[in-house]
Design brief:
This protein has no helices and 10 strands. One of its GO terms (molecular function) is 2 iron, 2 sulfur cluster binding.
């Protein structure tokens, strides 16, 4: 496996992803960041002026959550959904509330809003 194929699970702080208005309120968007050490896959869920970020990997099977680009939410938008096994996760903290991995969580990806842009934030301890 080359460095470009290595799957990363964190990003450095300060990477500008997109203006917040490029994600519709109540929707989610996928991001793939190619870095020297490998590739990071994550997604952001927007709620007004707040975004929650998550690593795009189901804790149950290790697969990406969405089978189709940006399709991370249930049809009514109330939960994050794994399209492979139907697990349901809370939008704010990624904790699984239904399906094969209840009590586990989608790993958080720290994001912030700076000058109207969604940016990666520092990992908290």
């Amino acid at each position: 496996m080359s460095d470009s194929d290595t799957r990363l699970f964190a990003t450095p702080a300060g990477v500008r992803l997109c203006p917040i208005d490029q994600i519709a309120d109540g929707k989610a968007r996928n991001f793939v960041l190619q870095m020297r050490a490998g590739r990071f896959h994550g997604f952001a869920v927007r709620d007004g002026d707040h975004v929650a970020g998550f690593v795009d990997q189901c804790p149950h099977a290790g697969l990406p959550l969405a089978q189709q680009l940006d399709d991370y939410l249930t049809p009514d938008g109330s939960h994050i959904r794994c399209s492979w096994h139907g697990a349901l996760f809370r939008r704010d903290d990624g904790v699984c509330v239904g399906g094969p991995c209840v009590g586990q969580r989608v790993a958080p990806w720290p994001l912030a809003i700076a000058d109207g842009w969604i940016v990666t934030a520092a990992q908290s301890d």
